[in-house]
Specification:
10 helices, 15 strands, about 35% helix, globular
């Protein structure tokens, strides 16, 4: 199986390429940069097949598909800077990447009857209530430009293809890029008090674990909408931060001990700062994975433990 992966310079695309290599599949990475060779993180594919690709350029997308002839595409490329997307001068670009780019990929998949995995988000919902969102729920009410454009991307996939997996994820972290965990570790070194919101509830998604699931999916024809985050129950960003520091101390980093750095829970309103409205309820119902024979992602605390052992901090 030959698989084209978009956005390989990001956290997820990087790990998908590694997972494909582990299984002996031919992965073709793509991103905006002229070249990309992975990073030295202990698991990276240091020399990966790569093509430069601007997904907003339809002719270029068609050219790459005609040349590479993939059997499946894992579409990780996206505009994910949620707050920056709210800036008026950025919104056209956000839509080009998340909507037009995704439509270009979907239409290119249509001609050779190629499978497509599209990564979406909990931000397509309004985040109200406490009930976990089900993957086939159509009660869409995105609150932000990011959420709206990712939802339009979903429509671009579902309206043009039959062989697709729309996989919504949330609170992503991985080795190759910036994320909440790295931010908290850095703040813990430089601050003795950290304020973290405790009224946004969801679960983390470790890209290393997610990559395994996505490759599992393209080995099947069990198409449709799915939710995929790590298991272990629903928690707040405050609870996650406490666990980050607890595990860091266990790994010998005493600078994160409670007597050294204090973590204070605050509401989203008290925290302020954010330009984009964030969903309070990011609980995603993942039961459809098991129902269709897919292995759920491991407990988020276990994922965090493996991640902290891998990165330098």
């Amino acid at each position: 199986m030959k698989v084209l992966v978009t956005g390989v310079a990001g956290q997820l695309g990087h790990d998908v390429m590694n997972e494909l290599a582990k299984r002996g599949y031919e992965g073709i990475g793509s991103d905006l940069a002229p070249a990309y060779s992975g990073i030295a993180d202990g698991t990276a594919v240091t020399a990966m097949p790569y093509v430069q690709l601007d997904i907003t350029d339809r002719e270029k997308v068609e050219e790459v598909f005609a040349d590479q002839k993939p059997d499946a595409v894992v579409h990780c490329a996206a505009w994910t800077a949620v707050d920056l997307a709210e800036d008026v001068e950025k919104q056209e670009t956000v839509r080009l990447v998340n909507v037009v780019g995704t439509q270009n990929i979907a239409l290119a998949c249509k001609k050779p009857d190629c499978k497509l995995v599209y990564l979406s988000t909990d931000y397509v919902f309004d985040g109200q209530g406490t009930k976990p969102w089900e993957p086939d729920c159509k009660d869409y009410r995105p609150l932000s430009v990011y959420g709206k454009t990712k939802l339009e991307g979903e429509f671009a996939v579902a309206d043009n293809l039959e062989k697709y997996f729309i996989v919504r994820i949330a609170w992503v972290f991985g080795v190759n890029g910036k994320n909440f965990i790295k931010t908290m570790l850095q703040l813990g070194k430089t601050h003795d008090t950290i304020r973290v919101v405790n009224d946004q509830i969801g679960t983390l998604t470790y890209t290393f674990d997610l990559a395994r699931l996505l490759v599992d999916m393209i080995e099947t024809d069990k198409y449709g909408y799915y939710h995929a985050t790590n298991e272990g129950g629903y928690v707040s960003w405050y609870e996650i931060t406490k666990e980050i520091f607890r595990q860091a101390v266990e790994l010998g980093h005493g600078e994160y001990a409670e007597e050294r750095v204090r973590v204070i829970p605050v509401t989203t309103q008290e925290y302020g700062v954010s330009k984009a409205k964030r969903p309070f309820n990011s609980r995603l119902d993942k039961s459809k994975l098991g129902q269709n024979g897919f292995m759920p992602l491991p407990d988020w605390k276990d994922a965090l433990h493996r991640y902290l052992r891998q990165i330098e901090f």
